[in-house]
Amino acid sequence: MSDWAGSVRRFAREEGQLSRSEFKLLEAFEVFDISVPEKGLALDLGAAPGGWTRILRTKGLRVVAVDPAKLDGHLSRDPGVQHVQTVAQRYLPTHVGRDAFDLIVNDMRIDVDRSVRLMCQAASFLKRSRFAIMTLKLKPRYQRKQIRDALAVLARQLRPVLVSRLPQGSSGPRIPLRLWNTPK
Ligand SMILES: C[S@@+](CC[C@H](N)C(=O)[O-])C[C@H]1O[C@@H](n2cnc3c(N)ncnc32)[C@H](O)[C@@H]1O
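Above: query sequence and S-adenosylmethionine SMILES. Below: predicted holo structure tokens.
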């Protein structure tokens, strides 16, 4: 079972699970009631070691996994996973003119402002009326303000439709957001 005290939902550990982060994505899918198109294409920013990518693969999505760190060996041999071993800042400009994504997820361990800016950049590659999910790695102080500021910036590109506070993990509060790409 999830060892997250106070979790809204407890998930059983699965065979093949790669990271504790997997619980966050499973919980976000459930809490936000997100369904993804089978055989779609997903972008996973901050993918290593590959827990979220693994979950997206179990849902039938092909995944572009962006992270300078290595993915788990099993995923690196999976033809449905394209690992781009670099930072999102370098990857995103190279994606212009390529296939749009059915889902974008972002679990990068970087500060909120940078993550939000990169998410806005990535949003131009998200198909209309599709969802994105990101976690905000908040600093300990003035968290409400950090969330408010993040939502204000995100709202220029995406419609933040739901914000959920998941339990506090070892690296501090994580706030998954569900974002919707809506025509402006
Ligand atoms: C919490 S881990 C992601 C865990 C992943 N969701 C999983 O389930 O296995 C955060 C990752 O963000 C990556 N990261 C940090 N800065 C990044 C950046 N600028 N671009 C891409 N990835 C980044 C780190 O290398 C690290 O692997």
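The CA atoms of residues 104 and 132 lie 5 Å apart.
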